[in-house]
Design a protein that fits this description.
- The complex is a heterodimer.
- Chain A is an alpha/beta fold.
- Chain A has helices at residues 27-41, 113-116, 127-130, 137-148, 153-163, 169-186, 209-219, 234-246, 257-269, 280-296, 323-328, 344-361, 371-374, 443-458, 484-496, 514-520, 537-545, 565-576; strands at 14-22, 44-51, 59-67, 78-83, 98-106, 123-124, 204-208, 224-227, 250-253, 274-278, 300-306, 337-339, 364-370, 377-381, 467-470, 475-479, 502-506, 508-510, 526-531, 551-556.
- By secondary structure, chain B is α/β, with parallel strands linked by helices.
- Chain B is built from nine helices and ten strands.
- The radius of gyration of chain B is 20 Å and the shape is globular.
- The chains are: A alpha/beta, B alpha/beta.
- At the A-B interface, helix 1, strand 7, helix 7, helix 8 and helix 9 of A face strand 1, strand 2, helix 2, helix 4 and helix 9 of B.
């Protein structure tokens, strides 16, 4: 190999790779198929995507980590870059950090100066010489990288055949040929990673966060959905459509988000658990409807797959900046549920839990996912389906007086008569009302209903699911959602170096759980709050609802790059004055 | 022995908040007469509304109802009817609710053709907020709410409904509860989305509408032979003529209730590597 020290694959647990290209070059397809082939080969791994908003002619990159052990996040830097072409690659330079000694392969030699300076020297493939005119460079890339990590040709051929099954034999054969050409070129190089001894056992899944969220909703009993297309939630809705229909439910493409949220209200009033998925701009439009669901005590779930804002912002890139609108965006005093999944597999659990809580407590739930998690594809050990199901307190025609729709009860949740229940006729209203649901402007009725709507959420025992916690020690790391992965990774690295830290990842953001947080923070002297926000929305939330002990620091920045585990570790090093923790990728 | 269902059986014990002389009383009477004529079961009937004087109507009925936010009654009703095709779903609202803040939903409800009935009580004014111009107010009316030099033309609801695809389009008058009840009965029987525009005077902010009872031409509309003829009447015909303007002749299968063909565990199998 020219000018390079061979990698020692036996020493490496995992490898991080970037496949980049102009929009339409097929970088994402190559990445998806590489991940699937890696899963079949017995690897764990994950893939995220970095794309511009254009459909064609923009830029796109598949970011992969392929590992012999389970992984939940990227490492801070990438070991391998394969640029199918260099179209607009410069737009990624703030986002994709190449490790010292990273290998660079490319299908064109017009590489940007900062990449051209890499050591070892980039390796250039002349696709025009290597491939027939109708063979695609992204398939060459797939075959090349698969071979370098020990994935056999039969696995690569199988994932290609499955992916292009609808395009006919000729296309499949041509793509398999291009991949084989790539694999043949790989023989000139040392392997990058040694594959596991055994091929994948059957109990592994390859799933995205958006798919996991939709599956969790179905498992918990959602059978009605309405949504308006919006990036980055549309793939959730599109996955959901045929599946909810096969389960006897329905999905409606609404004319706007105002319609979707109100369709959910109608379906849920009819007794059918209902869900919508959107992103920040859509959530903003839904706010009045969510308030109506609070007032009429109509259960529903809205998943917000967050993107960078405000306004149209950066539609294809992640951020954690809808926290405050989700918590505080409703007018009036409108207690509701806000939950956040912390990983791809947790999307399955948290969405199912949100459905269960919304139905049980007769209130809307906002699930704050984010592009980083929603559009991350991950190989994981097959999870059990959540055993949560929608259990709504229904009025029994023979027993309760079903007309007392908003009456005081021991758990503050009143039985609901759904249409079709004889004797239960009533008209829920967005007007303040009395215990029978009749409009009322009496201060006493207002106070009684305000109290009941708040108490039914405050008095409920949410159990241990409220947060994910690991470790001990006087140093606490608090993060949420997509910031959980770098926090947990940094904490593990610290522990491996003998530094005890504890991590607290709240999954239930509203209602706040002050007693549980106080117990979780007992003995803590230093707190590091980690979030993907410019202004520190999560820090403000924590300060508003919890007593944070001792020295409190915030590690935060906005935008697509997110937070790296190395940054978290460096911040811990500063707080604890332990310089050794600052070594780059000290433990990988 | 079958019990005879009377219109009064459909009334709740709530006293309407409407002003004396309000047209909406006549609409309420017509709705209960239509429900009685159809012998609707009260617990199988749902009346959905938004905000405004007319949207108070569901609370005065002893059926299921839902009084939501301004402009969004049609989406609530759409979600309910799709989730529960066994129910009879009726939507009530006003000209502000349906032609202004909810105008987008009006068009898409016509397109979507879910089997439910829309009753729009048009008084050409915002009554509940005390007299501002509505989408059906003529350009000659001035009001301090709008000082910009614009002269908006009145919204033509019937023509819009026809163009957007509604299969049943009619006009009624609140001062003719029996005639209106017959129209509403036919609208509910129509197997698809039905629009009934109802002239319903606001005697407080539009006292001249007291004269409507002399101006309305009852039953002057008969179903047009084809859509073009219906559109011609909607565009150029007498806007005080009542009756059924358009009734699309079609065979419509009752929708088959959705049924499950698989279970969640089988769906999850697809994620296996």
């Amino acid at each position: 190999m020219p000018g390079s020290k061979p990698m020692n694959p036996a020493a490496k647990q995992d490898i991080t790779l970037v496949i980049a290209g102009g929009g339409g070059a097929g970088a994402l397809t190559a990445g998806e198929l590489l991940l699937k082939a890696a899963a079949r080969r017995g690897y764990f791994g994950l893939m995220t995507r970095a794309v511009g908003p254009q459909i064609r002619g923009g830029e796109s990159a598949a970011l992969l980590r392929i590992s012999r052990a389970p992984v939940a996040a990227h490492r801070d830097m990438f070991d391998v870059l394969f640029a199918i072409d260099w179209t607009n690659y410069a737009r990624f330079t703030g986002e994709i950090a190449l490790a010292p000694g990273a290998r660079v392969f490319a299908g064109a030699d017009d590489m940007p100066q900062e990449v051209a300076a890499a050591r070892p020297l980039p390796e250039h493939f002349d696709f025009r010489a290597l491939l027939a005119r109708d063979e695609r460079p992204n398939m060459f890339t797939l075959g090349f990288l698969a071979a370098l990590i020990g994935i056999e040709a039969d696995i690569v051929a199988a994932v290609i055949a499955e992916r292009f099954a609808h395009l006919g034999r000729e296309v499949r054969a041509r793509n398999i040929r291009a991949a084989a050409t790539g694999a043949a070129q790989a023989a000139r190089f040392d392997p990058l990673l040694r594959p596991p001894a055994a091929r994948a056992p059957q109990e592994r899944w390859l799933i995205s966060g958006n798919q996991a969220a939709a599956l969790g909703a179905l498992a918990a009993g959602v059978r009605f959905a309405a949504a308006y297309p919006i990036t980055p939630s549309s793939d959730l809705t599109e996955w959901l459509g045929p599946r909810i229909e096969a389960l006897g439910g329905q999905l409606v493409q609404a004319e706007d988000e105002l319609a979707s949220i109100n369709m959910l209200i109608g379906a849920s009033f009819g007794g059918v658990p209902a869900l919508s998925a959107t992103s920040g701009p859509g959530l903003a439009l839904m706010m009045e409807g969510i308030g109506l669901a609070v007032m009429t005590e109509t259960p529903l779930v809205v998943i917000d797959v967050q993107r960078a804002g405000p306004s149209t912002g950066i539609p294809t890139r992640s951020e954690q900046t809808d926290l405050e609108i989700a918590l505080y965006g409703l007018h009036g005093e409108a207690p509701h549920l806000v939950l956040a999944p912390m990983s791809v597999p947790d999307c399955l659990f948290t969405t199912a839990w949100a459905v269960e809580l919304a139905e049980r407590l007769q209130t809307p739930a906002i699930v704050l996912s984010e592009q980083r998690i929603g559009q991350m594809n991950m190989i994981l050990d097959a999870p059990a389906l959540p055993d949560m199901t929608a259990q709504r307190k229904l009025a029994q025609p023979a027993g309760d007086d079903p007309c007392l729709r908003y009456a005081a009860t021991a758990d503050h949740v009143a039985p609901m008569a759904i249409p079709g229940t004889a004797g239960g006729m009533h008209t829920p209203t967005g007007l303040e009302h009395d215990a029978r649901g009749r409009p009322s402007s009496q201060p006493a009725d207002h106070l009684a209903q305000l109290r009941r709507r708040q108490e039914k959420l405050a008095a409920f025992d949410y159990g241990d699911h409220w947060a994910h916690m690991e470790g001990e020690g006087a140093m606490a790391l608090i993060g949420w959602g997509g910031a959980a992965a770098p926090v947990l990774e940094a904490a593990r690295q610290c522990r491996a170096m003998g530094v005890e830290v504890r991590t607290i990842i709240p999954r239930l953001l509203a209602p706040a759980q002050p007693d549980r947080m106080a117990a979780a923070l007992a003995g803590v002297e230093r707190v590091l709050v980690v979030e993907n926000s410019h202004s520190g929305q999560f820090l403000r939330y924590l300060r508003a609802h919890y007593d944070l002990p001792g020295e409190v620091r915030s590690l935060r920045h906005a935008g697509p790059a997110g937070i790296a585990a190395g940054e978290v570790r460096a911040a811990i090093a500063d707080l604890l004055h332990i310089d050794d923790l600052k070594q780059p990728e000290a433990v990988s | 022995m079958t019990e005879i269902i009377k219109p009064a059986d459909y009334k709740s014990d709530l006293k309407p908040v409407w002003c004396p002389g309000c047209g909406d009383f006549g609409v309420l009477a017509a709705v209960t007469r239509a429900f009685a004529a159809l012998e609707l079961e009260k617990h199988q009937t749902a009346v959905i509304s938004g905000i405004g004087c007319s949207s108070r109507l569901p609370a005065y009925l002893d059926t299921y109802g839902y009084h939501g936010v301004h402009g969004r009654a049609l989406p609530v009703a759409t979600g309910l009817k799709l989730a529960r095709p066994d129910l009879t779903v009726v939507v009530t609202g006003g000209d502000g609710d349906m032609y202004s803040i909810g105008a987008g939903h009006f068009i898409h409800a016509c397109r979507r053709d879910v089997n439910m009935t829309l009753l729009v009580m048009d008084n050409r004014v915002y009554g509940m907020t005390k007299g501002q111009p509505s989408p059906t107010t003529g350009p000659e009316v001035t009001h301090p709410m709008s000082t910009a030099d614009v002269r908006a033309r009145p919204f033509n609801a019937l023509a819009t409904a026809l163009v957007a695809g509604a299969g049943f389009v009619a006009r009624g008058f609140s001062g003719d509860p029996d005639g209106l009840a017959r129209i509403i009965t036919e609208a509910i029987r129509h197997p698809g989305f039905a629009v009934v525009e109802i002239l319903s005077p606001c005697v407080v902010y539009r006292p001249e509408q007291k004269q409507w009872k002399h101006q309305v031409r009852r039953d002057a509309l008969i179903p047009a032979a084809d859509l073009n003829a219906a559109l011609e009447l909607a565009m150029n015909g007498d806007e005080m003529a009542t009756g059924i303007l358009w009734r699309e002749k079609r065979e419509r299968q009752a929708p088959t209730p959705p049924t499950a063909r698989t279970d969640v565990a089988a769906i999850a199998e697809a994620f296996r590597v």
